[in-house]
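Sorry, explain these tokens?

___
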Amino acid sequence: QLPEGPLPAEAKPAPGLPAPRRELLASCHRFLRDVLDLRLRSDAALARLHLEDVLAPATLADVARISEARHRIAAAARLFDGHLAAYDRRVARMDDEIRRLGQGDRVAGAFYTGLRGSMEENRRRMGEIYGKRKEALQAAETVLVFMLERQGRYSVEGDTVVFQSGDDKSYYDEWMAVVRAREAEAQKLYDQLQKEAAAAKEQLAEFD
């Protein structure tokens, strides 16, 4: 799991530890720092896309805004995939370091075995969160394409989308409900992950 808050720029393990353990602990701190930085950069890039308004009535009232919202949805999906790929690359680098550092020190090796399991669980859960978010994006894309196809058959009055056809309204409501449900599921999973984020810091503190 990812720790909250800033990590030291460079870990300084206790000098009395055996050399392999000092190096391993420093390597773990670097990994956690890099992964936290990756998440913060991804969150910042996602915030710049302003996904919260891709289905806003003001967006649905204008064809150009609908098209632009679809581009933002596609960019967000690429961002999710890119974050996971970058995480996988950083884990691979960490594995290479541990193969070198963990040799000859069973305690250090056992510690990393436990940390590696935590890393794999974190990756699985991030994939699940992003999977739900991508499902929400796909449902939003369905709504936007539908609205493009229904030009001239609905209007936006204030914050309300008014359809001429009851069937169109039902279809719209159904897919908007899917968007909200998938977003809520993703947020619940994310909140659970955040509550457990201190576990990695605690592991490092015990090892130190």
In short: The first strand starts at residue 154 and ends at 157. Residues 31 and 150 are 50 Å apart (CA to CA).
